[in-house]
Structures are given as C-alpha cells and as structure tokens.
Design a protein that fits this description.
The chain is of the alpha/beta class and about 220 residues long. The protein folds into two domains: about 110 residues, D-Maltodextrin-Binding Protein, domain 2 (3-Layer(aba) Sandwich); about 80 residues, Periplasmic binding protein-like II (D-Maltodextrin-Binding Protein, domain 2, 3-Layer(aba) Sandwich). Helix content is about 30%, strand content about 25%. The structure holds prephenic acid. The site of prephenic acid has 15 residues, from α2, β3, α5 and α7. It comes from Bullifex porci. This is prephenate dehydratase.
Length: about 220
C-alpha cells in the first residue's frame, strides 16, 4: 500500500520532472546500465535515451517484465518502462510490475508525444497489406485510421511497436506495422502514412526505475 501511495503521489507531483532529461536532476553515475522494452526502435527506447543519454549502456528486452527483472537481478542499474497513454489509458500490467516489488523506486518520469505511423516494406501498396502488427497501444491509437484505410486487414498484437516493425521488415510485404518513423529507419521500412493516431494529444508517460529508496530523485 505504501508503494501504491508513493507511485500515485509521484504521478501527481513530479510535474517539474516531466518534460526533459535536464529537469530530471539526479547525480549522474558513470557506466549507467539501463534495461528497457525493446527491441531497438521502441518509444520506450526513446524515453530511455532522453533519461540517460548516449553514454549509458542499454539492454533491449522483449517484455517490460524482462526489463524490470534484469534490474532486480542486479544486472543493470535502471529500467525504463511505459506507464500510461492518453488514448489507451494506464497499462495495468506495468503498474502491477512495480507494485509487486517493494524495493523498486520511480526515480523520474517523462511524457513523450507519440506519433504513430503506418510502416511498410519499400514499394508496398495498401492493397498488398493483409496483416498489421503492433503493440496493443499502437493498434488502439491507430484504430480509426486502420478501420478506414485497411478494413480487411487482420491485426496482431506483438510485444512492442518496434517488434511489429521488425516483423514487417522480414515479411514478403504483406505485413505492415504501426510504429514510429524512427523505427522505419532502424528496420529499413518506409513510412506509408505518418501521424495515424486518433488524437494529436497522444502522449505516453514513461518511468525510470531503480532499486532502493529513489534517493537520486530531485523533485
Ligand atoms: O511499443 C513501444 O514502442 C513501446 O515503447 C510501448 C508503448 C506502450 O506500452 O504504450 C509505448 C508508447 C506507445 O504508447 C505505444 C507502445
């Protein structure tokens, strides 16, 4: 319960810490090692870079649970996870992840504007697409656009938007992904349609976690 209250209070009060890495003033450690929801090209990866910059070493994990477990096992110092989206709402599995460990602290948070794009293999036409892969939040955020433009295509929930992009890149062109334009670069895909999310106010909040009391937080 103490942890729940702490998290709620952090969510409500860390306004000074929500906009940029600069405002998350913690004592920088050398050799920071950070796990996050991967693979390369996720929004969570973007948040991790914002928090920890170029000098950290990064571990892209398949699930949020894997990312948090790596930190709990002492194999990295921090974990970065998504927490809530303005369209899709709170992702309770992630919050459960926090609550299940008494000694995890939220040391900082940030909110990113999420621009979802439809990514395809180069030269693909809309009529070629039979399957769209993304994180459940990506499919939710792009739902209206997808229903209007690809009403016959199937959708598949995968572990992250970047995983969707990876799957599209190894497909025969019939698979598209809802992911970031940055993921298109990582996986050699083309942005077929930018900004397909339902709302221009599409934002996701991310937490940086550490073990212990969160003493490096400067609220
Ligand atoms: O799949 C990703 O790229 C993530 O970082 C996860 C996630 C989420 O869990 O909400 C993060 C931001 C977007 O809202 C879509 C997906």
């Amino acid at each position: 319960m103490k942890k729940l209250i702490t998290i709620i209070l952090l969510g409500l009060t860390l306004v000074s810490c929500t906009t940029s890495r600069e405002k998350c003033e913690w004592t920088r450690l050398t050799g920071e090692s950070v796990s996050y929801l991967g693979p390369e090209g996720t929004y969570t990866g973007q948040a991790a870079m914002l928090f920890f910059g170029d000098d950290a070493s990064y571990h892209a994990k398949k699930t949020v649970s894997d990312a948090v477990t790596l930190m709990i096992d002492g194999k990295c110092n921090f974990a970065v996870i998504p927490q809530e989206n303005t369209v899709g709402g709170p992702v309770t599995a992630y919050i459960d992840e926090l609550l299940s460990h008494d000694d995890i602290s939220v040391i900082c948070e940030t909110e990113l504007v999420i621009d979802q794009a439809l990514l395809v293999k180069k030269g693909t036409k809309l009529s070629d697409i039979t399957l769209i892969c993304s994180h459940e939040q990506g499919l939710l955020q792009g739902k209206l656009w997808l229903e209007e433009n690809l009403p016959l295509a199937q959708t598949r929930v995968v572990s992250s938007t970047a995983e969707g992009a990876r799957l599209a890149s190894i497909s025969d062109g019939s698979v598209a992904a809802v992911a970031s334009a940055a993921a298109a670069d990582v996986y050699g895909l083309e942005v077929y349609a930018p900004r397909i999310q339902e709302s221009d106010a599409n934002k996701t909040r991310f937490y940086a976690l550490s073990m212990g009391e969160g003493s490096i937080l400067r609220a």
